[in-house]
Amino acid sequence: MDTIRIPVIAGDGTGEDIWNASREIFEEAVLKTTGGSKRIEWVPLVAGLKALDSHNVLLPQETVDAILDSTIALKGPLTTPVGGGFRSVNVYLRQRFDLYVCIRPIRWFRGLPSPLVNPEAVDMVIFRENTEDLYRGIEWKGGTAEARTVVDFLRDVMGVEVDPDSGIGIKPMSRAGTERFVRWAVGWAVKANRRVITIVHKGNIMKYTEGAFREWAYETAREFDDVSAEGVQGKIPINDRIADNMFMQVIARPADYDILLCPNLNGDYLSDACAALIGGLGVAPGANIGDDVAVFEPTHGSAPKYAGLDMVNPTSFILSGAMLFDHMGMVETGTAIRRAVEETIRAGIMTYDLARQVRDGRAVKCSEYGKAVVERVSASGV
Ligand code: NAD
C-alpha cells in the first residue's frame, strides 16, 4: 500500500473542531477511490499561537521544512491580533513559500441557502494576487520615529504634506508580480474552458498600483490566443470592473461573472462577500499556489467565540482538502469528497450557520456533519 504524506496545520480557535470532523472523510475518500492501494499519513505541524507556546516562534523551522519536503499542506485558520501584536502568520506563510496565486471557488449547489433569488447562477472563481499590495506589511505606527522619517521625506523630498501623526502603510504592486499571477490564472481559465475573465481594480483612484494592475493584466492576457479583449467570437472575453461596482455586480448579475482577477486586498474583501451568496464562510474553500509549494486552507478565520463548541461548519476545510487532492492529480478523490458534501447538504444535514438560513432548518454538530459526509463517501459507487 502506498502512503501519501500530507502535512496538516489544524490551526487556532475552531481549527481543531473542523480538523476532527474532516480527517476521516479524507482518509475514507482515499481508500475508497484508490481501491485501498493508498493511505494518508498525516504530518501534524504547528504555526501561530500554538507554535509560540511550544516552540517560542510563530513559524518553526520544522514546519517550514516539512512543507518544503512534501510541497503541499492542508491548513486550518490561524488567529492574528488586530491593531498590534504579531503580524499574520497566514500572510507570512504565503510570502515564505511565495504562494502568489490564491484560488477561491464560489459555487452554489442545491441545498445551500442564499440571499439571491436565482443562486444557481453563482459559479465564480476568485483569483487573488497573494504576495503584494498592502499585505506586504510595510507600515509604521503613527508618531514613531519611523513614521516621522517617512512624513519628513514626503514633505522635504516629494513635496507632499501629511499629518505628522499619521500611521503610514505602503502599497507596492509590481509588473512582474502582476504578470506571473495573471499568467497563471488566465492559463487556468483557458485550460478549464471558462466563460469570461474580469479584472477587478480600483484604478480610477489608485492609478499606479490598481490602475497598473489593470493595464498589466490586459497586456499579459494578450499572450493567450484563446482570450480576447475585443469580443472576438469563440474566444474567452476579458473585461474589467472597478472594485466598488464589482461588489454590486456579483450580487445583482452573478451570471455575468466567472473568473475574477483581483489584487490582494480587493480579493480578500470580495471572497467573503461572494461567500455570503452561497451560504457563508463555512462553505468557502481556498488554495494558495506557488511554483514549488501549495497550501490549501478555508477562506474563513478562527472564529474564536465558537472554539471547542463542536458547532461550526467544516465544509470549507473539507472542500479545501478536495482541492488538494485535485492538485495532487487525485481528481477522483477530490470529486468523491465534493459529491459526498453536496449529497449531505442536499439531504438537509447542515451545521448551524446554514440551518439558520433555511426554513425549519435543524442544525447538527460539526462532528455529526463530518460523520454524515464520511457515510456518503463510504456509500459512493466510485
Ligand atoms: P472569521 O472568518 O473567523 O469569522 C467571521 C464570521 O464567519 C463569524 O461570524 C464566524 O462565526 C463565521 N465563520 C467563520 N468560520 C466559520 C465556519 N467554519 N462555519 C460557520 N461560520 C463560520 O473572521 P474574524 O472573526 O474576522 O477573524 C477571527 C480571527 O481569524 C482573526 O484573528 C483573524 O485574523 C483570523 N483570520 C484568519 C484567516 C486564516 O487563517 N487564513 C482568515 C481570516 C481571518
Give an overview in words.
With 382 residues, the protein is of the alpha/beta class. Strands 2-1-3-13-12-4-5-11-8-10-9 form an eleven-stranded mixed sheet, with helices on both faces. A two-stranded antiparallel sheet has the order 6-7. The longest helix has 19 residues. It is globular, with a radius of gyration of 22 Å. The model has no long low-confidence stretch (mean pLDDT 96). Nicotinamide-adenine-dinucleotide binds next to loops.
Average pLDDT for all residues: 96
Low-confidence stretches: none
Q: Label the structural class.
A: alpha/beta
Bound molecules: nicotinamide-adenine-dinucleotide
Helical amount among residues, as a percent range? 40-55%
Oligomer category: single chain
How is this structure best summarized?
The chain is an alpha/beta fold and 382 residues long. It contains 13 helices and 13 strands.
Helix and strand arrangement:
Layout: E1 2-9, H1 15-33, E2 38-44, H2 49-55, H3 61-70, E3 72-75, H4 89-96, E4 101-107, E5 123-129, E6 139-140, H5 145-156, E7 168-169, H6 175-191, E8 197-201, H7 207-221, E9 227-228, E10 236-242, H8 243-252, E11 259-262, H9 264-275, E12 287-289, E13 294-296, H10 315-327, H11 331-346, H12 352-355, H13 366-379
Parallel strand pairs: 1-2, 1-3, 3-13, 5-11, 8-10, 8-11, 9-10
Antiparallel strand pairs: 4-5, 4-12, 6-7, 12-13
Question: What key phrases describe this protein's structure?
Answer:
382 residues; alpha/beta; eleven-stranded mixed sheet; two-stranded antiparallel ribbon; 13 helices; 41% helix; binds nicotinamide-adenine-dinucleotide
